[in-house]
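Re: [ENG-882] Designed sequences occasionally contain unexpected residues at chain ends

Forwarding the minimal case from QA. Structure tokens:
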């Protein structure tokens, strides 16, 4: 069984990133429906924004250049849904 890694926020705090001890890079979407970072118990649907795309891109680059990473897992924070869609603002 793999232990969930301690996730660290990417620069815009909209994506968290960490690597398990057996090579799974976890990229966790962590923004609310307005595109702001999730805080405390405010865990609703995640919204895809330009800033989130930049955080995801940086996390994927980190994973690709880490020789210990074999798999990338993209997930949403919270229990209800993965994503509410994209913000067109």
């Amino acid at each position: 069984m793999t232990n969930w890694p301690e996730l660290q926020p990417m620069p815009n705090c909209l994506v968290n990133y960490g690597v398990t001890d057996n090579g799974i890079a976890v990229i966790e979407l962590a923004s609310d429906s307005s595109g702001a970072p999730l805080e405390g118990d405010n865990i609703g649907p995640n919204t895809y924004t330009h800033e989130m795309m930049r955080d995801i891109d940086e996390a994927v680059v980190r994973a690709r250049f880490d020789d210990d990473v074999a798999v990338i897992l993209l997930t949403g924070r919270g229990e209800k849904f993965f994503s509410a869609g994209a913000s067109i603002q």
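QA comment: On inspection the terminal residues look reasonable. The radius of gyration is 13 Å. Proposing we downgrade this to a documentation issue.
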